[in-house]
């Protein structure tokens, strides 16, 4: 897209908008164990999470937090909020713990945005192993 000077207006609006999950290092940054190798075939071994900002029909913003399984592509947890706050993230993790088999200890991959670095999140992950 850069070589052709092609731009998608939807994403340009987000870049200039109010929400960005990147705020630098604000807490604990997890070790990179996947090194961008996203080819897991065993379900519940590698999960991915992110928060996405979406514009609603009434021109207000909503925030979607989801966790998906890399192998099956299944959505294991999905929450929507009017704010990308700790409640949204914790509700997503709580839903995940209800939807994965007992004793499973997956790797959860994120973009390491600010909400994935804070103590409440890293503590919850270590608590659930």
From TrEMBL:
A Pfam family assignment: rve
Integrase catalytic domain residues: 39-129
Family matches, as InterPro entries: Integrase_cat-core, RNaseH-like_sf, RNaseH_sf, Transposase_IS3/IS150/IS904
Biological process terms in GO annotation: DNA integration
Gene3D superfamilies reported in the protein's UniProt record: Ribonuclease H-like superfamily/Ribonuclease H
Molecular functions per Gene Ontology: nucleic acid binding
Record protein name field: Mobile element protein
Organism: Paucilactobacillus wasatchensis
Organism taxonomic ancestry: Bacteria, Bacillati, Bacillota, Bacilli, Lactobacillales
């Amino acid at each position: 897209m850069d070589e052709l000077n092609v731009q998608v207006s939807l994403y340009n609006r987000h870049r200039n908008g109010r929400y960005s999950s990147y705020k630098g290092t604000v807490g604990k940054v997890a070790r990179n164990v996947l090194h961008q190798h996203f080819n897991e075939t065993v379900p519940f071994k590698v999960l991915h999470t992110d928060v996405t900002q979406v514009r609603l029909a009434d021109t207000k913003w909503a925030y979607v937090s989801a966790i998906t399984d890399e192998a099956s592509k299944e959505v294991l947890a999905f929450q929507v909020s009017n704010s990308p706050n700790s409640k949204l993230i914790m509700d997503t993790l709580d839903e995940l713990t209800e939807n994965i088999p007992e004793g499973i200890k997956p790797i959860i991959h994120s973009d390491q945005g600010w909400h994935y670095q804070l103590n409440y999140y890293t503590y919850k992950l270590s608590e659930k192993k």
